[in-house]
Known about the structure:
By secondary structure, the protein is of the alpha/beta class.
Amino acid sequence: MARTVRDVALMLSAMAGPDPRSPIALSQPGSHFSQPLERRFKGVNIAWSPDLGGLPVDQQVVSEIEKQIPVFKDLGCTVEEQWPDFSDADEIFKVFRALNMVLILGDLYRHHRDKLKDTIIWNIEEGLKLTGSQVAAAESKKSELYHRVRQFMQTFEYLILPVSQVPPFDVNQQYITSINDRKMETYIDWMKSCYYITVTGHPAISVPCGFTPDGLPVGIQIVGRHQDDFGLLQLANAFEKETEFGKQRPPLAV
């Protein structure tokens, strides 16, 4: 979305703010994001999880993030390896993703099915098979998940974890089929580290945090409290200034 955290803040200063057309719009005006991002973090509690309690994550990704945990401690934060209970997050996301596929792409599926790729057809058809009971159950579980994470974040102001479960892969490979010898059940399972956060509604940001031995970029995901987008940018900005990975480039592969 931007080259720097400050540029993200600039973007939000132009597009964020209250809007009667959106029930989830932030209450603060966009100018709120024009304030200085500098902040002292002494005594701030951060939860760190390499895998949210069991997700398969490539060790190269974990290793690069672990190297940067001391940065948060140097900023004055207390870092503990903890994570919320993400039970049902996978089911919740997949139900609502399938439902939205039908809502957004249903007409294309009906009239131009031959133009859609197999994974999209599969996802739309998963949505068409959903029952009212399944959607209702997912809605209930989503509310329970939100409150579990909200309560967790009363103790920890931030949660840090991998953005992606694998380093960047070959452009000719459509999607990841296994991680650490664990087979992925669908074409989106390798992105659970992102979409588990998505279903909670909490703000999250990806910041560069290093490179694998092959020179592939690795990002760290920072999650903030519900609607504390500005506070999230403050920690991301502090980490970015301390590490400056966004300014670094790996050697070109020969």
